[in-house]
Structure formats: C-alpha cells, structure tokens
Amino acid sequence: MALTIYERNGGFPTIRKLVTDFYAEVLESSVLAHHFEEVDMPRLMDHQTRFITYLTGGPATSYSDDHLARVHRNRGITHEEFDVIVEILTEAMDDHDFEEDDIAAVERELRRRESLIVTA
To answer: What's the pTM value of the predicted model, to 2 decimals?
Structure first.
C-alpha cells in the first residue's frame, strides 16, 4: 500500500509546523494580512491544519465543499489573493522538503476548490 503525502512528509508534526510557517508569511503579506486582522488565529490554524491534513491524505479529517464555501462566503477573497495564498503554501511545503509531485498534488486539490474560496 502506497504512503499518503501526509505519511511521506512526517504526519501531524510536519503539517502543524507547515501551517505555522504558512501563516507567519500570510500575516506579513501586504496583499493578505487585512483578512486576518480580527481572526482567532489559533482557532484558524487548527482548522487549517485539519484542512491540509485532509488534502494530504491524513487520518480522520474531512472537509466538504459545502463547508469550505460556507466559511469563505463573506470573506471577499479575490483571485489575486487566492494565487498569493497558493504561492505561499507551495513555498512553505518546499521549505519543509515536500517532493515536487506532492506539492503539485496539493496545489491541484486547492485550485480545484478555488471557486469555493474566491468570493470577490
């Protein structure tokens, strides 16, 4: 049985560190930071850790497209902002030594959901 992206890259400890580093960059972004000014970051990071775990084939997590659309409905995220998010995430994955194929697979899954996240 083939290992999942989650398993190949160290599981929960790696994903948690990846999300921490990802949000450090997001919060420094002049394009993105305004979306997070009044956000409970620990809570968001917990949700994002579960979402990335889901995208990488990790255990016991699931996110429906309906849930993803609902939580982003009033966020006003643009296509440009979405592209910056994807860029920061893929760079963070590269920084954590994910293989190119694994990075590409996660990016494909995220881009497949772009219409659920982009609302402006």
So the answer is: 0.92
